[in-house]
Design goal:
This protein has 122 residues and is mostly helical. It has a domain of 75 residues. It has four helices and no strands. The longest helix is centred in the last third of the chain and has 38 residues. The chain starts with a helix and ends in a 7-residue tail after the last helix.
Length: 122
């Protein structure tokens, strides 16, 4: 596994993390917003922003183990390949988890607003 492969993998991981539905994106509401919308939004946004699914370390570790195995198999120098693979796999696993957490935070925000009586559809 070459340094170019490592760089391409890290770029892919960062791109995956960037392609998420951020919690800060404006909400789509079916109809008009009532007088409590802004205060409810602030409370729900704070709740969503603090949400975590707790799987970050697990996803990164799984990615690192798989990456180390693939790197060791494909590289001329098994140890170097394993290290590069572990770093790449860990970065990809962490980026994937960040994307999932961000999507879940968005869903928490939407559900919270709906539970407070707002017609949020996305």
């Amino acid at each position: 596994m070459t340094h170019n492969t490592l760089m391409l993998s890290l770029i892919a991981a960062l791109s995956l993390a960037a392609c998420t539905a951020p919690v800060d994106r404006p909400l789509t509401v079916d109809g008009t917003r009532n007088a409590n919308f802004d205060s409810d939004y602030n409370a729900c946004h704070a709740q969503a922003a603090s949400f975590t699914n707790g799987a970050g370390a697990e996803s990164a570790a799984i990615g690192a183990v798989i990456g180390a195995g693939v790197g060791a198999i494909e590289a001329d120098d098994e140890w170097e390949g394993a290290v590069v693979g572990a770093i790449t796999g860990g970065a990809i696993g962490a980026a994937e988890n960040a994307s999932k957490v961000n999507d879940e935070r968005r869903n928490v925000l939407i559900r919270c607003m709906q539970n407070r009586g707002h017609d949020v559809i996305g």
